Fold this sequence. Notes:
Order of helices and strands: EEEEEEEEEEEEEEE
Strand content: over 45%
Radius of gyration: 21 Å
CATH architecture of the largest domain: Roll
Helix content: under 10%
Distance between the termini: 44 Å
Number of strands: 15
Oligomer: single chain
CATH class of the largest domain: Mainly Beta
Shape: flat
CATH topology of the largest domain: SH3 type barrels
Number of helices: 0
Structural class: mainly beta
Number of domains: 3
Largest sheet: 5 strands, antiparallel
Strand order of the largest sheet: 4-3-2-1-5
Amino acid sequence: MNVTELRPGNYFIDEGNLYLVMDILLNKTAMRKMVAKVKAKNMRTGAITELARNSGYDVEKAILSKKKMLYLYDAGDNLVFMDNETYEQIEINKSRLEWEMNFLVSNAEIDILFYEDEILGITLPSSVALQITDCEPAVRGDTVNKATKLATVETGYQLKVPLFIDNGEKILVRTDTGAYDGRA
């Protein structure tokens, strides 16, 4: 497919690397060919790069698949997931899932992202319900701004929550920003 046909959310292969299109800018001037500036995320390394290609440049479109799997447990350097249908277990290295580990609890159903037989990572839901294990006591005072306090959830992740939230409560946490999203 031509590089000018790419849109945000498309996956493509260029020079042996698998990319996800985050943004694309098509620039056409009177004297030269159209140039496509593609902001892309390398799906294997996680690095975000900007690629500039002329309009005649072709890339290979990549089709990724998702499979629902159950998160089982932490096995030292890896996290173990199980296919719900075949009971086959796979392991993914922790270093590839540093941010996602903040929102993973046992027996959570997660989408695993595959390209052919290669595991690229996991896709989290937009928000997850987590239980608060440790929370500072509510202190009234500076209420000019939104009054918040620090709380720790069951995965060990810390975030700011409103003053009315107490220990043991379940809250919704956004997985893209890690911010409080409401009560569960």
